[in-house]
Write a structure and sequence with these properties.
Elements: H1 3-28, H2 34-51, H3 54-57, H4 62-68, H5 103-111, H6 114-120, H7 123-126, H8 128-140, H9 144-156, E1 159-161, H10 162-169, E2 179-181, E3 193-194, E4 205-209, E5 212-216, E6 226-229, E7 242-244, E8 255-256, E9 261-264, H11 266-286, E10 292-296, E11 308-312, E12 320-326, H12 332-341, E13 349-353, H13 361-367, E14 373-377, H14 378-388
Parallel strand pairs: 12-13, 13-14
Antiparallel strand pairs: 1-9, 2-9, 3-8, 4-5, 5-6, 6-7, 10-11, 11-12
Helix pairs in contact: 1-2, 1-5, 8-11, 9-11, 11-14, 12-13
């Protein structure tokens, strides 16, 4: 297939994906007026049809489009555009018929052009890219010691009472104006209370289905961080009790959803807090091993060049040195594009993905072919280091 034809198919695939994501967003937005929703769906259907050959486009009426959105995306994508990005098998709605929590992240990372977001989504949803960039610009201006402290604070204090946050962030507080009042986030409210995830400490989402209420962390639901509302009524003036329904559902205490409780904005949580948690998880696991030394954010030129430098030097064995960059993107296709836009580094780099993206590591490795980059996951990297230092598996 000619290069131009490949590029055209990739563009058409992105256009179809954009249309599907925008349509799912419209279908799931309870604040959208019916007339506005209908207009958006018509626009999305027009984009989808334009991405298909004329002979195939005729099959897509509005009813067929809306029904197909509820299943895997493969039938909605142009024929011949198949790739290893995994989007063909992706479902935009979960098993309960609710739009996936990660839809906004997919749009930000890869699919939806800025102009489309500005036209279809409120500004509060559009500023994610700018906010992420602003976060890293602020971090890069810090001295190395301040940078390391700020990264740790992102993971340790992403939400809570304002007095606690001010005390923890101290002199960095005025520089990091990414906190928002939890009272402005109705999606995490349960009878005037919110609940921090036991893993990332960020507000969990409250999902109501009929007479049932589920409280879950968007990022750690797969780790078993989900709850249901307890049957016993809460004590007057106390938060409703949650009952864990997953293996990661540690006991949590509700906090008032007031203006005195703040949380980092979603983009900062998604692209600042979650990667840092991955890095700290790696550090904590590896520091338990003999003959392993781990440095956090030790880049030669800037502390944000990469996340960890791991040195394995067991007696009688060849030493191993790794530079590691942890990534917590929803789309590995978008991650591949972002990494390819970087200037190649003069050293080998290991990209670490969360374990739940293990099935996507080969695709990312192929996309990065020709770069001195190795792709792995948290568990695979830990196993590799254990083997290199002679530790029992």
């Amino acid at each position: 297939m000619a290069l131009k034809e490949c590029d055209d198919l990739r563009l058409q695939r992105k256009q179809a994906l954009t249309a599907c994501c925008m349509a799912a967003a419209a279908e799931s937005d309870p604040q959208l007026q019916p007339a506005r929703r209908a207009a958006m769906l018509m626009d999305c259907l027009a984009v989808l049809r334009a991405a298909h050959p004329a002979a195939d486009a005729a099959q897509w009426g509005m009813g067929e489009f809306r029904r197909a959105l509820r299943g895997p995306l493969a039938p909605l994508l142009p024929a011949g555009s198949e790739s290893g990005d995994g989007f063909g098998a992706l479902c935009l709605f979960d098993e309960d018929g609710l739009v996936r929590d990660a839809l906004q992240d997919l749009c930000r990372e890869h699919l939806v052009p800025q102009a489309a977001l500005e036209w279809h989504w409120p500004w509060a949803r559009v500023r994610a890219e700018q906010e992420e960039r602003r976060l890293y610009e602020i971090l890069r201006r810090l001295e190395p010691q301040e940078y390391r402290r700020a990264r740790a604070l992102l993971a340790e204090n992403p939400a809570g009472p304002v007095r606690v946050l001010r005390r923890a962030w101290d002199q960095l507080w005025m520089r990091f104006d990414f906190f928002e009042a939890v009272s402005d986030w109705p999606w995490c409210h349960l009878d005037g209370w919110w609940y921090p995830c036991p893993k990332c400490r960020w507000p969990m989402r409250v999902v109501r289905r009929g007479g049932e209420v589920e409280v879950r962390c968007e990022a750690h639901r797969a780790h078993g961080v989900h709850y249901r509302l307890g049957l016993e009524p809460a004590t007057t003036g106390a938060a409703p009790l949650l009952v864990g329904t997953g293996k990661g559902a540690e006991a949590v205490v509700g906090l008032p959803a007031s203006t005195e409780h703040l949380a980092l904005s979603r983009p900062v949580w998604r692209y600042g807090v979650l990667p840092t948690l991955l890095e700290l998880e790696l550090r904590d696991e590896l520091q338990r091993l003999d003959h392993v030394h781990v440095q956090m954010w030790p880049g030669e030129l800037r502390p944000d060049e990469y996340d960890l430098r791991i040195t394995v030097a067991p007696p009688g064995r060849r030493a191993m040195n790794l530079r590691v960059d942890a990534k917590a993107w929803e789309s590995v296709e978008a991650l591949a594009c972002a990494l390819l836009e970087r200037e190649p580094q003069p050293y080998a780099l290991t990209i670490v993905l969360p374990d739940h993206q293990d099935h996507e590591r080969h695709y990312l490795q192929e996309r990065l072919s020709g770069r001195r980059i190795r792709v792995t996951t948290v568990s695979r990297l830990i196993a590799r280091v254990r083997q290199a230092c002679g530790a029992a598996r």
